[in-house]
């Protein structure tokens, strides 16, 4: 992918950062109803350009509705299951269809995005239950090689689901692809303090409200709620990306360090000056184009290398 020269990137990055702060941050704050947040994010997603040549469809697998994004050329026996972010409370397959389509385009495989049940109406373990059921549903269609991926809260669900699949003896994915992962509901990361004024998207107060709604009466230390605590030694290889201005940057740093120590880190890439979930803005932000292309390339390698 040919990217603009660096003098062009800086003003584009500044413009997208300002748009994120003005258009999305007002919805993602404590006290705003989940219904309004969901409508707001779905409406905002209309501004993101869909790539040409990727078909979108809807359906239900194992009782879980969702979307599938199909590139022009795709291998029928490979797939990606992508778990959208949104603080466990908002986000949808519609809001994330553009990012999923770009990943599908880059990796040459179908990308399935389940609409797992969201908090606070459906607290833990509903989202993890749905993710596990959906993965098994995709595998039942004849998919032999699968990547499990997600961003933010979706990355946390992906980690929890991979651990459960392993524990119940189901074939685990070839790779776990995690963008801006939120994997610690105990809020012990120092980036919550050091990046609070640099991330244009998220506030700690909103994250805490989301966490309470999601975990309900469970301890935040439960390994499926804070999968940073899960032993990564027996998990699939981890592919991690994070922006250094992400308020949850510490989660990515600590997870990458633990996976590296366990020998399960495939790659970890930091993007200087980028915020939480910046990859969503692929098609508008050259840094996001680069990140998604790199992510898709590694997913393709995992799915097609013997």
From TrEMBL:
Q: Which PROSITE patterns match?
A: LIPASE_GDXG_SER (PS01174)
Tell me where in this chain the Alpha/beta hydrolase fold-3 domain is found: 80-279
Q: Which domain of life is it from?
A: Bacteria
Entries under InterPro entries matching the protein: AB_hydrolase_3 (IPR013094), AB_hydrolase_fold (IPR029058), GDXG_lipolytic_enzyme (IPR050300), Lipase_GDXG_put_SER_AS (IPR033140)
Q: Keywords on this record?
A: Hydrolase
Molecular function as annotated in GO: triacylglycerol lipase activity
Active-site annotation: 152
Report the SUPFAM superfamilies cross-referenced here: alpha/beta-Hydrolases
Short name of any one Pfam family annotated for the protein: Abhydrolase_3
Q: Which PANTHER family match?
A: AB HYDROLASE SUPERFAMILY PROTEIN C4A8.06C, ACETYL-HYDROLASE LIPR-RELATED
What is stated as this protein's family in its record? Belongs to the 'GDXG' lipolytic enzyme family.
Protein name, entry field: Acetyl esterase/lipase
């Amino acid at each position: 992918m040919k990217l603009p020269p660096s003098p062009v990137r800086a003003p584009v990055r500044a413009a997208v950062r300002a748009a994120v702060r003005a258009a999305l941050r007002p919805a993602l704050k404590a006290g705003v109803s989940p219904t309004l947040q969901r409508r707001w994010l779905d409406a905002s997603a209309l501004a993101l350009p869909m790539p040409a040549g990727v078909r979108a469809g809807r359906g239900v697998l194992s009782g879980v509705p969702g979307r599938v994004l199909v590139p022009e050329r795709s291998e029928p026996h490979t797939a990606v299951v992508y778990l959208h972010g949104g603080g466990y409370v908002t986000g949808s397959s519609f809001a994330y269809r553009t990012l999923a389509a770009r990943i599908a385009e880059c990796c040459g495989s179908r990308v399935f995005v389940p609409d797992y049940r969201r908090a606070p109406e459906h607290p833990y373990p509903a989202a993890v239950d749905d993710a596990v059921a959906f993965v098994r549903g995709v595998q039942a269609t004849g998919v032999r090689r699968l990547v499990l991926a997600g961003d933010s809260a979706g990355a946390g669900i992906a980690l929890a689901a991979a651990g459960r699949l392993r524990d119940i003896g189901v074939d685990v994915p070839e790779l776990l692809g995690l963008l801006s992962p939120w994997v610690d509901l105990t809020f012990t990361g120092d980036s919550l303090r050091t990046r609070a004024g640099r991330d244009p998207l998220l506030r700690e107060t909103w994250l805490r409200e989301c966490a309470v709604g999601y975990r309900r009466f469970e301890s935040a230390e439960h390994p499926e709620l804070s999968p940073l605590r899960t032993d990564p030694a027996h998990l699939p290889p981890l592919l991690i990306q994070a922006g250094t201005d992400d308020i949850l940057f510490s989660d990515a740093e600590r997870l990458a360090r633990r996976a590296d120590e366990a020998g399960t880190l495939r790659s970890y890439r930091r993007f200087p000056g980028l915020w939480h979930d910046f990859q969503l803005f692929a098609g508008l932000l050259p840094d996001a184009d680069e990140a998604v292309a790199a992510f898709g390339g590694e997913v393709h390698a995992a799915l097609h290398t013997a």
